[in-house]
Amino acid sequence: MTVIEGSPTDEHAKVWLTPDQLASWLSVVRLITRLPWAIDAQLQRSADLSMTEYMTMAMLAEAPRRTMRMSDLAELTSSSLSRLSHLVKRLESQEYVRREADSADGRFTNAILLPAGLSKLESAAPSHVAHVRHLVVDNLSPERLRRLGQDADRIVQRIDSPVR
To answer: Whose C-alpha in 59, 73, 78, 153 is 20 to 30 A from the C-alpha of 84?
Structure first.
């Protein structure tokens, strides 16, 4: 939206995006909409896993003893505890994950990646990584990829910081 200097809407001009800002923002919206869909579709085709299932098992695989509190796992996967609980229940039914009370504090529940889950993750990883390389990593120079990562981190930090 363009605003004529001195018009009654002048005070609202800073609210609207310039044409260049709008074009960039719409590119970001397309990226955050289409990239997860493309990754999810590939994982469904090649491994019969959703992106969230894959990420949940990958987070567990990296955790000490392949174990993590459900609340921490929910935060890392940007999921509500309720949604994660349903997802982990599905993974439990396939014997990829199990839940048990946290021995250090029984108020918490831990998710544990089982050998079958690790095997499933390891078999899904090569095609997943190849797809991520194709879509993102090999599509950018090392410097542009580094800057994209830094920019993404800045935005996530803003999202995670309390509003002042």
So the answer is: 153
